[in-house]
Amino acid sequence: MKISTQELFDGIRSGNKRLIGKAITLVESKKAEHRKEAEDLLKKIMPFTGKSVRVGITGVPGAGKSTFIENFGILAISKGKKVAVLAIDPSSAINKGSILGDKTRMEELSKEENAFIRPSPSSGFLGGVANATFETMLICEAAGYDYILIETVGVGQSEILVADITDVFLFLKIIGGGDELQGIKRGIMEMTDVIFINKVDADNLQKAKNTRLELKRALDFIPPKEKDWKVQILLGSALNNEGLEDVFEKIDNFITLKNKSGRFEVVRKQQSEKRFEYWVQEYILAMMKRSSSVEEAYFEHKKNASEQVSNPSSEAKLFVDQFLKNEN
């Protein structure tokens, strides 16, 4: 039985997890008829969005992201917060499938009434961000979730896309493997607000402190992302619930600082502007492919680029010029 936009809206506002999931499935769909319904739904919920704290969480595979998110989420709930987790699973480049196993990896959190976990495939979208993650955040905000935690796949591909849609960017680090700074790209360090060195215990505490010192020295060479804020480097163990209170406090301090300076609203506007630019490109490309002759020209120029008849930039310009000429 088809669910109406109004029913989805009512379900979101009442916190019905089944209907929240249905709404997210709708905005993730690329079918033209679904896009129209999704736009209607998003328009309805907009007045009820924007009141959450959006946290991007990244780190290499094995850094303990899921354990951190589960225990951090439970901590936030114990403080009276509602937590939504958008766990982005890597899609296969071959069959586009994904594991979508985060609900099983966050078993305790998934039992919480005030938690909502949504695994979504990245579908090849760069940075380990699903295509509709931003719109999914809006749905969760309209449902009254206070913290939106976005777990990326941590593959190092354009992680800036995660930072572009979040208020706080948290980088999980683990100790081991020679040079502690090896493999940490400058780009990730530039967008990081809080670093949590995970899996620290009595046996590696001194090594963790040395890593923190090295990270602090490295950060001295990077211009501050926010005025009056130094990237916080914290030690702990998510598995043993050590250091999570500090993370919660630092995130709260960071958001308070951004609100006082007026930067919070500025960054929120920038997030929406970047999504606007993304959708402009999507809709223009979809419009270009609408007519069979234009679609034929599109694939012809694309073939010329792929077979190196001409460079991709030139072929793209030729196609766009031809499209605009036909439209006029």
Overall description:
Helices cover 51% and strands 12% of the residues. It has 328 residues and is an alpha/beta fold. A seven-stranded parallel sheet has the order 3-2-4-1-5-6-7, with helices on both faces. It is globular. The termini are far apart. Residues 91-103 and 123-130 have low confidence and may be disordered.
What strand line-up does the widest sheet have? 3-2-4-1-5-6-7
Broad structural category: alpha/beta
Distance between the termini: 44 Å
Helix content: 40-55%
Low-confidence stretches: 91-103, 123-130
Q: Mean pLDDT score, rounded?
A: 85
Tell how many strands the DSSP assignment holds: 7
- Total helices: the number is 14
Secondary-structure element string? HHHEHEHHEHEHEHEHEHHHH
Largest sheet: 7 strands, parallel
Strand content: 5-15%
Cα Rg: 22 Å
Inertia-based shape? globular
Looking at this protein, list some descriptive labels:
single chain; globular; seven-stranded parallel β-sheet; alpha/beta; 328 residues; 7 strands
The gist of it:
The protein is an alpha/beta fold and 328 residues long. It has 14 helices and 7 strands.
